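User: Study the chain.
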Amino acid sequence: MFVRPSILAMSLLALALPLGAQDTTLHSAEHDYRIVTVATGLENPWSLAVLPSGDLLVTERPGRLRIIRKGVLLPEPVAGVPTVRAPGQGGLLDVVLHPQFATNRYVYLSYAKPNAEGTQGTTAVMRAKFVNDRLVEPQEIIETKVWSQGRGHHGSRLAFDANGFLFITVGDRQVPSSGNLEQHPSQLLASHHGKVLRLHDDGRVPADNPFVGREGALPEIWSYGHRNSQGMAVQPGTNVLWAVEHGPQGGDELNIIEAGKNYGWPVIGFGVNYGSGTTIHSGTTRAGMEQPVNVWVPSIATSGMLFYTGDKFPGWRNSLFVGGMVGERLARLTLDGKRVVSQELLAQRIGRVRDVRQGLDGFIYLVIDNATPTAKSVVRLEPVKR
């Protein structure tokens, strides 16, 4: 069920000036909290994975995978990372662990892969074993069919569901949303543009994917009609896949991703063309196209997502957290089934929140995508007793 932004309970309790001392107490409807710096010194960090040891793996878009160990950023990057095409929005992007990482040691990376000349790029995913702080036995599990000279909209979020299937978001690569909208590559099943893909953990295509066997359709496709999904998470206990995607000027979306469904881009939506404000879509609804669960107008530039299950913030348990890069904020959404019933803004003006993860300690970790290595790179939210 779609909830218009105007009827959301948008709590502004967390509005604050830029953060200074770490002991600054911030307030929300359920908890007082503070934001503690975990690490600085990273350049354009994009994603974070928590190892069973408590170490943190962090990707940097220029093409480095870094380790934070016992609160210290190790000076040497992890060896074995693939070559990436880093201009614009490209580079080394998401990092996730295999559900059985403790026994198989597999780490998965998404990245912008260059062609031989470096003139074009596409979204690709590899896996490798993480052994002695190195990546070994690398295996590219998919090279998507979205080659372009463009430098944006790679998508690149990864998530495993409870059945061990790997989901991958692929952006529309900024193909213009003009002309015959129904023929935009995000709407075409012969293209990976603007899709969510579903694979086995080794890259094989599951036999029950919705378009397997359909002539002219790529069998990896799970859903289509997306623009640029940079946040994705599986809801614990339900195995429901949720994703956020960037709208253009306005119209960021939260969607429940289901097999074979069309999410409308660019035929329907809630945004307009950048700058001019002119119309993109044929409307906001159409038969056979899904409606979002929530829309942000104006956009918050949605990014990483987390369903919180820890014990440090009991009032936030089962909330959905969504990072925002515009306004530098964290949104907390309260859900009733598949419906958003309230939303509050947390931790504002701390930098571009690129990723949101839960630590082994139950704290909420944020990856701050700032261009300068001197800026805060990874922070965490800790509760403060009232």
Observations:
- The CA atoms of residues 205 and 355 lie 28 Å apart.
- The radius of gyration is 20 Å.
